[in-house]
Structure formats: C-alpha cells, structure tokens
Amino acid sequence: MNTSLHVNPIPNPASVPPPSPRRRALSALLLFALSASSFAATALIVPGTAVAQEPSGATTSVPPISWGACPAAEPPYPDPSPRAQCATVKVPLDWSKPEGPKIGIFVARHRATDPARRIGVLMSNPGGPGTPGVDEALYADDPVTGYSPDMLRRFDMIGFDPRGIGRSRTAVCDETISESIPARPRDAAEFGRLRTLNGRLADSCLQWTGPLAAHMDTESVARDVDAIRAALGESRISFIGHSYGTSLGERYARLFPGRLRALALDSAMDPDRPDAERYLTDAGVTVDDTLKRLAAWCEKDTSCALNGKDLIAVTDELFARADAGTLREPGPNGPTRTKVDADRLADFLTFAVGKGGREETAKQLAALYTGKGEVQWIPHVTDMASRLVLCRDYDFRIRDYAEYRAILKRAAKAAPHVRYSSQALNTILGCQGWTMLPKPRPTQVEGPLPPVLVVNATHDLATPLPGARRMARSFPKATLFTMDVVGHWLYRRGGTEEAMRVIDAYLTDPKG
C-alpha cells in the first residue's frame, strides 16, 4: 500500500476566486466574510444571540441551540451515545428570502470528553448526497465506525441531517413514475420519453414536498451549516466532508473563508462542476484502470478464477458477444436463455470491479465467459434525494439523443474495456429533463483559508482521482494524500487506517 503527498506550498493564482457581481453511508453558507463595518454591526447584537449572514450581506439572528435528549433508535440499531444531545435549528427555506418561511435542521452533538483540551467543534457530512448526517455525532464513539479517542477528547462532534433529508423533513416524490423511465435510451424517442418522465418526477417532488424540493442544493445546505455555527456560538468551525460532503466543505470554504479553522476532504468531488462528458469520462477511465489492476493481480495469483487467461481480452470478448446478441446469463448447468446486452455488462463491471472483492469479481467474470455459474446483478435504484441535490448543483443537460450517443462514443474510446461508468451515467441521465434547473455558481468570497487536506484512493469509482487533484489545486494551500487502493471513503478502520491517522493529525494540529 503506497501513499503520496502533494503540496501546494504557495498560493495558486488560478485558485483565487475572481471578484464577480445510520452512519457513514455508501457519499458556505453566509455569502460574504465579515468586513470591518459588518463586524461593528455585529458588536451591537444582544449578547446570547448569534448572527448569520444572508446572500444579500444582511444579517439575521439565530437563537442559541437548546439541547435536549436524542430520540431512541429504532431496532436493530443501538441507542445513541449517552454523551449525545439533539436539537433543531431553524433556517430560511429560501436563503434569498431570509424573513420568509423557516424549516428545521435536525442537529446532534457529542460533547468533547476532555473539556480542558477542547479545540472546538468538528462538523461533518457523510455525503450521498441525500444521506442523513446526525449519526456522525450520535455514534461518534462507536468502536468500529466512530472517531478515535483523541478526536473525541478534543472536539464536540456535530452532525446534522441536511435539509430535505432524514429528520430535517424528508422530501417525498412520486417514485412510481421512475418505473417507466428508460434506464438506457436506445433511440431519440426513448430519450425524449426519459426527459418527459424525469420532468414529471421532478414536478411530483414539488407537488408532494413543496418549495423545499427546489432548495436542497449544496449552496443552501452550506448556508445552513453557517447558521448552525452561529447557533452554536462558535466563531470558527473545523469541518470534515466525506464523498459528496466534500462539495459541501468546498462550498462553505468559498462562501465563508473566515469561518474555517480546518477543512478535511475525504474522497473528493471535482470542484469544477464538470459537464456530462467530463463527468462520465473521468469515471469511466477510473473503472477501466481498476479493471486493468484486477487483470494484473489475476495474472499472478492462482486464486483468480481466470488465472492463465488475459482478463482484459476476456472482457473485450464479452462485450463483443453482447454486441452480437450471443452473451447469455450463466446458470448452474450452462448458459440460460436470458440475453446480456452491453449496457447490462457495463453495469456489472462498474459495481463488481469497484465494490466487489477480487476473487468474487473474477469468479463472476468467469461465469459470464463460460456460461456456468452465477452473477450478482445490481438493480437500478432511483435515489430521489440525490437527484434533488445533484440536478441543481451540476449542469448535466444534453442537447438531444445525437449528442448523447456522441458522448457515449467518446467516453467508450477513453475507457475501451468497460465503455462507461454505470454509476456516473445513472446520475447524468437522471438529470435530463429535470424541471428544477441547475443553479448558477454563487459569488465566491475572498478571504484567508486554512491549509486544506484532501485524501483520496487512487482507484475510487465514485470520486475519481482527477477530481480530487482538481480539488487540491483549487485551494491556495492544500495537501493531497493518496492511498494506492481500490475504494471509497478512506476515513475508516480496516485497510485505510493510515488515512484516518493523517486526517486526525491534521484536524488536531495545534497550529490550526
């Protein structure tokens, strides 16, 4: 297992924002930093009332958090830590209308075990997007999925369910519509149908959830984070984001640079918000490279079911048979009558190569090749919370079916042995025809940022390494720590503890 460090020791001019008008699942809030004049205004606020800043630059008061007992967990999950406390913070539904309707953000805290050595608060987000985050605090001391004892001594751990998620008023849509949406449109008519049904699905979210469905974007959540900070009475926070939570951390940093003590980004998203083609290409190349890694292991290890064969050549042959209509699902006694087309094969490769064990993945590839054995197919799942965030954060719109086919063709040329990442393509297609259009990037605020830590696996299919490299380059001072592994979310025990130690050391650094 190899690790590498990449440091930007001096500010990168290109990274300076231009002035302009149930636990660890698997993956920015006040627009302007306080100026001298706004600081003077802050000094006039009644003691005990925190202040958060709105997009217009005006301020709004946030009552201090009133902590209480946390609700008991539903079986089979254990009850939260006895040190955990829970509360609700009220924030504007629409941050551009701060005096308008409010929504509640469910927040949890795990108090520092050594108050005398307490650094401050560490806020976290587990990504998804669409994953509840309160477990980060409710189970912060879990011996398997929690934080190290030193982290628990030094920080109040703060977790929250993002707006529209979990106990922060779950968004609801008519998911029966998704049953009729073509998973992989095969002609212009199907592509049009996909767009139409996606639009109806989006409209159902607005009808069943209300205006909140249109305000679940990351910028809005980032502003909620700052409201939580203000309600906590903290002038600065430390933040750790995992997977899509890194987008939230990056957005918070750009909008509230003076509010951050430390920023750790684990399995980082691309901060440039790539279009559909680059998003698909980066992910596809990662799957392709991971398949080559599997092939190299298989060549040397006799436990591989395809040892003695060229695994890449086997995969290429499987695609050729799929294109010809001769690839069949394997069975216990030989091939079945069920055809496996190229799209289904690409689906299998994305999830088997990225998330399956080496031996099992090779065994299933051998089953497809020989026709005898069993393959675990991963069904398409409609994740509505994820769409409500991603389709507002990214502009994945594709002009028409002809452009869609051209993008697929170029992506397959970049990743010839797997063709594309099914996970990435699912995301892109899910946003076609979405009636809640992408939001423009918010104005970025200039101000001092702490040195940022970015960690990533070299073979991460959910957050490919090129995006993590761009994330590190986007900050004036950043360290990129990589581990030569296949995986996602490095802050965990078992196999990637080295990354966990690096992140803990950074967050507890007394110079922070």
Structural overview:
- It contains 15 helices and 11 strands.
- The N terminus is likely disordered.
- A hairpin with a 5-residue loop joins strand 2 and strand 3.
- It has 2 domains: 205 residues, Alpha/Beta hydrolase fold, catalytic domain (Rossmann fold, 3-Layer(aba) Sandwich); 167 residues, no CATH class.
- By secondary structure, the chain is of the alpha/beta class.
- It starts with a strand and ends in a 5-residue tail after the last helix.
- The longest helix is centred in the middle third of the chain and has 25 residues.
- It is globular and about 65 Å long.
- A 9-stranded mixed β-sheet has the order 1-11-10-9-8-6-7-5-4, with helices on both faces.
Task: Summarize the SSE layout with pairings.
Elements: E1 3-7, H1 36-42, E2 50-53, E3 59-62, E4 84-92, E5 102-110, E6 120-125, H2 135-138, H3 149-154, E7 155-160, H4 188-209, H5 218-232, E8 237-242, H6 245-255, E9 260-266, H7 276-300, H8 311-324, H9 342-355, H10 358-370, H11 384-393, H12 401-414, H13 422-430, E10 452-459, H14 465-473, E11 478-486, H15 497-507
Helix pairs in contact: 5-6, 7-9, 7-12, 7-13, 8-10
